[in-house]
Structure prediction request, 614 residues.
Amino acid sequence: MKRNQKICATILTVTVLTAGSALAAEKWMTGDFHQHTTYTDGSYPMNDLTAAGVIATSAVQDPAGLYRKGVMPQGFRFGLDFQANSEHGGSSSRDGFSNAWSTYAPNPAIGDAGKMWRWQTLISTSDIPGYAGPAYMGAFDWILGIRANYPGKLAMTGMEWNPPGHEHSSTGIVAADARPIAEFEYRFDKSDTDGTLTTTTASTMSWPGKLQNSAYTAPDYSASLGLNAAHNKTIDGVKWMQANYPTTGWIVPAHVERAGCGLTGGAWNIAAFRDINDNGPTVAFGFEGIPGHPKDTDRGSFGANACGGGTYGGAGYYIATIGGVWDNLLADGRKFFNFASSDFHNDFGSDFWPGEYTKTYVKVKHNDDDEKNDKHDRDDQHHAKKLRHEERFTQEDVVNGLRSGNAYSVHGDLINELDFRVFHGAAGHHKKAHGKNNATMGEELIVEKGDKITVRIRFKSPDANNCQAGDNASTDYVCNSPVVHHVQLIQGRVNPARASKLLADGITPNPEYKTVDPSVASVVKTFDATSWITDAAGYTTMAFEVPNVQNDMFFRIRGSNLGYGVEVKNASNLTIYGTDVSGNPLKNTPGINSADHAWSDLWFYSNPIFVKAL
Prediction:
């Protein structure tokens, strides 16, 4: 324990940069914001350990000699640019070294029942006024150490929120310390009942006014909208985040189909997504439509009771279904986007390491205000000189990039570059009148009715991915270079109005708020080697024209390495993975997936582009 305390004291004195640097005003960055460590139910520490209880004090490129690999360093070794720690809310039984809190003397807990509530383990002891207990490392202390070791990367603080009335949500707040996300956890996590017995936490941290779960009894729209009374606390959490951290917070529901379709409450459904987005448009801006746990026997950990009965090419039912939940959210005109993360817990069971198999690519743009507000440069003059002519990318830039929707998600490095745009094909004066002649993911292109538009898709695949037979695949598995077989272009309509939660009387729930209309989208073109062009540099390009735009619409794409009508079954004739004759993904039957199957069944998904016809 003394060794841990010495490490804690060392980390707390380190001044670090919160931003990486790059040579351009914008760049594509890869990241993962849903992962677990020994702080909660993960099997590895957050940072590398060189010996028992000893944290690495510099970046480690080859982990072979480590006592224990760290989750975030592994993600960086697999090429990620940003990561967010996202442990479960509620309470914690052990510290980041896997030492039980009960081994500390005296008990370091501040809150009710002598428990180490998650809010306390998120922050540093220096952030607890008057703290006089034993020294320990909070999650933020671990993050500071990782930032010191990897100054060119971004290590962010977050949590996996337990939203009342729903499954989980990847959540975080960019701030100078972890107190904001800790306060959010204390106030709104379903499993954090601290404050029931005493007011110690509220008075110590100056966090008055917490409402316990039992305070939320009405309204209950379970029967009409699938939103139970507990959902109201989730909405209070969203409103709090929107009011206090509208540009630096994120609430991204995770593995959204796992608990079922939410038709009578208790899971995520379209009414819940509409409600969180209505109440927090700049913080509740998307979901993890592609779950983690890709090598679980139930791919994505989606069993038969998940909405859709499993995943489809590793994606959830909500984004895999054309005209499904996601397309209906987009048909509302909502800027509500799809992301993917590893949900890493361990590498010997359900998961690949962060960045090993699943990546979200985000276009990150430099914000001039970041340098004005970044006091850390003043603490390191040498680094400031080095970066004098460079643009700096910060955590805020990453959150802005996620919120912009200019992002795409990939399995197995099927692609590593994507340029997806809609071009205005009208006369020059029309283009000039509306400010720009093209839009990319997350953006809206304004045209006039009757104008022509052209959708252009350009991608590239790497020569190899991270598949290694005998390591992250079976010994006799043959790892293949990732090659896209086909790309589907999905076109949807944007409805002229979106449904409100309540009818005009302000009391009666509106049944349209829960409606999913399958006619809102369809696959309008499927591209393959017969209809695209690949140049000498390996870039593949294709285009689709809409000659006469009359209505508002959106476009999104997905692609796969699988051919048409491919169906791989097990000895019991159950479908492991595959496609129908049109190239759509088949359901991954729960219980029979493996790492080999995940490497064989690769997909990528873009975010949408909107077109508005005036």
Notes: Confidence is low (pLDDT under 50) at residues 1-23, 370-390. Residues 231-244 form the longest helix (14 residues). The longest strand covers residues 154-161.
